[in-house]
């Protein structure tokens, strides 16, 4: 039956630079976090975009390519997941503008489609 228990699950959404994806995956796997979804995304933050050239003409593009990573996890893996993303996505010891952002959102329910399992066990 759906929504019968609260399992303290979280959805972690991270926006990172595309060239840092392999490093983030390595860090998450090292922390036993092996399930994730990866999407292409575009946006801008403090860096406000970038200059690009098309057929010799300068184009001011305010959207920068990013990678969105989504990880649904149980409460006990949240901090480990955050630490892994930071370790893999940060460009150097201090980090740089544009390294990305992490959002942690409560996850009301998770249901495995194949067998109907729900809650923590479905993740």
Structural features, described:
Helices cover 18% and strands 36% of the residues. The chain is an alpha+beta fold and 123 residues long. The chain has a single domain, classed as Alpha-Beta Plaits (2-Layer Sandwich). Strands 2-5-1-6 form a 4-stranded antiparallel sheet, with helices on one face. Strands 3-4 form a two-stranded antiparallel ribbon. α1 (21-30) runs antiparallel to α2 (78-89). The protein is elongated.
What is the H/E order?
A: EHEEEEHE
Q: State the CATH topology.
A: Alpha-Beta Plaits
Termini Cα gap: 17 Å
Helices, by number, come to: 2
Low-pLDDT parts are: 1-5
Q: What is the number of independent domains?
A: 1
Total beta strands? 6
Radius of gyration: 17 Å
Shape: elongated
Could you report the average pLDDT, rounded to the nearest whole number? 87
